[in-house]
Design goal:
The protein is mainly beta. The chain is 13% helix and 45% strand. The protein is globular.
């Protein structure tokens, strides 16, 4: 019986990495096969981000991210998990070079200290 997932669990409870509120004014560049955008970041964590955009692609779309963090540029590939038209999208990071991951992790650690 202990393996049942509680039905009132929030999405956040199921995340492998916690999400942090992005510092005010945090932006990133993102692109997919057909478009390029610069958008604000609402929250972020090693597992993914919530990006504010009026033109969110549908779930399942792969996108490339470029984030200028205080610790250096962070590049990643992500997949759109949730898409809210005219509002934004939740994306899951699927690929990141080791150096990018190290810069991103350092920045997240600075944000929590």
């Amino acid at each position: 019986m202990g393996h049942l997932v509680c039905s009132v669990a929030t999405t956040n409870d199921l995340r492998r990495y916690p999400r942090l509120s992005a510092p005010k004014g945090t932006i990133l560049a993102w692109e997919n096969a057909s478009m390029r955008h610069v958008s604000y970041v609402a929250n972020l964590g090693l597992g993914g981000l919530y990006i504010r955009t009026r033109e969110a692609p549908p779930p399942g779309t792969f996108i490339r991210l470029l984030l200028d963090a205080p610790t250096g540029q962070v590049r990643a590939r992500a997949i759109v998990q949730r898409s809210n038209p005219k509002e934004g999208m939740g994306v899951k990071i699927v690929a990141m070079q080791q150096e990018d991951r190290a810069r991103f992790a350092r920045w997240l650690k600075l944000l929590t200290s």
